[in-house]
Design a protein that fits this description.
This protein has eleven helices and eight strands. With about 280 residues, the protein is an alpha/beta fold. The longest helix is centred in the middle third of the chain and has 18 residues. GO terms for molecular function: lyase activity.
């Protein structure tokens, strides 16, 4: 259950609390002062990241959540598993949580709205919604269908009274598509109710700058080693930066290195004494 239930609030109070978190999450998307979200995948990673200085909101990564469940990314999770994880993460912290909700776990807009309503009830203040049909990131839903799915997510927020922050993903460039189509989709999603455009494939400064200039709203990017530096992304006017499964990779790399060192009868890694 969301934290508010444990403190004695009924369902109406829970939804009011989630609505406030959704408003806060939206307000944290500021061009030039990007919201940095180090992605998490369960309750303990949520707590650890939330306690880090400067962290203002969390976001899950579907890849990391899926791998933690032993299934492939790309809706290898069941809807029930996705909602359970969202509920666990949201209940573990008091800051807003955005959930990577993949394709909404539904083939049509009606299903997307129903499932996003359930996601909001699980405590999510925001969500990612992608526009590609398969894996890898192509083909894409046709434009009208993709727009209707974003609109359905917005309708779910209106139906529940929670203005959920929608980070609409544009997979055009990552799937080998054309720039103009990516921009058309981005602006159509904003018109349908998205709060921010998560555009994959912005691999250099020129592309980031062009996207910020041509998208009629806020821009979110995926980043990691070899990407445009974080300070430069801020200078270019980006509103949000996330790392997807990179945070899981970072964690696993440290774990494997520690296991190797211990197995070789080496020194105890200092982090072995970490208290949480």
């Amino acid at each position: 259950m969301p934290v508010a239930v444990a403190s004695g609030l009924g369902q109406a109070g829970v939804m009011t609390d989630t609505a406030a978190k959704a408003e806060l999450l939206r307000s944290l998307h500021i061009p030039g002062i990007p919201l940095i979200v180090t992605n998490v995948w369960d309750a303990v990673t949520a707590k650890i990241v939330a306690d880090a200085p400067g962290v203002r909101a969390l976001a899950t990564a579907s890849h990391a959540v899926s791998f933690a469940h032993g299934v492939a990314d790309g809706e290898g999770l069941t809807l029930a598993q996705a909602l359970t994880t969202a509920r666990l993460v949201a209940a573990a912290v008091e800051i807003p949580v955005s959930v990577d909700f993949e394709k909404g776990y539904a083939p049509d807009a009606t299903g997307v709205q129903r499932n996003v309503e359930a996601l909001i009830e699980a405590g999510a203040a925001g969500l990612n919604l992608e526009d590609s049909i398969g894996q890898p990131k192509a083909p894409l839903f046709d434009l009208d269908t993709a727009v209707s799915r974003v609109a359905a997510a917005r309708a779910a927020g209106e139906a529940t009274g929670v203005p959920i922050t929608i980070n609409a993903r544009v997979d055009t460039l990552a799937g080998g598509g054309e720039w103009d189509d990516a921009i058309t989709r981005a602006n159509a999603y904003l018109a349908a109710g998205a709060d921010c455009i998560f555009m994959l494939g912005l691999g250099d400064e020129a592309k980031v700058a062009r996207a910020v200039a041509e998208v009629a709203g806020k821009v979110s990017v995926f980043s990691g080693p070899g990407s445009v530096p974080l300070k430069k992304l801020a200078e270019l006017g980006v509103s949000r930066v996330s790392f997807g499964p990179g945070a899981l990779g970072l964690t696993l790399a440290h774990l494997r290195a520690a296991a190797t060192q211990l197995t070789a009868l080496g020194d105890y890694p200092a982090e072995l004494g970490f208290s949480y």
